[in-house]
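Q: I'm a student working through a structural biology exercise. My instructor gave each of us a protein and asked us to get a predicted structure, then write a short paragraph describing it. Mine is BPM/SPOP BACK domain-containing protein. I'm not confident about reading structure output yet, so if you can add a plain explanation after the tokens, that would really help. Here is the sequence I was given:
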Amino acid sequence: MIRHLLVAADRYAMERLKLVCQSILCQNLNVDTVATTWALADQHSCDKLKDACLEYIACSNAMDAVVETQGYKNLKVTDPSLIVDLLESTKKIRNA
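A: Happy to help. First, here is the predicted structure for BPM/SPOP BACK domain-containing protein. I'll explain a few features afterward.
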């Protein structure tokens, strides 16, 4: 439900609500949700949330598990350029 609330907050320019939604989503990231959350963050210009997704993947070394999720597989089909961005950004974090 929080994802739908984020979409509505973005649509109606409710920035405080959007920040609260991002914060909740950041706290609840896991292997199964990180790819779809990354796509949601990209679609709604949520830089804080995108950064949290990248950090989750890079710091937890969860990339192998993430690529096995349905969310990642769906994203690979619907927006391959977003997958490239995710992989490149994760690599930059790991090399920093």
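A: Here are two points you could use in your paragraph. The helical segments are 2-11, 15-27, 34-43, 47-60, 63-66, 70-78, 80-95. The chain has one domain: 1-95. It's a good idea to check both against the output above yourself.
Q: Great, thank you!
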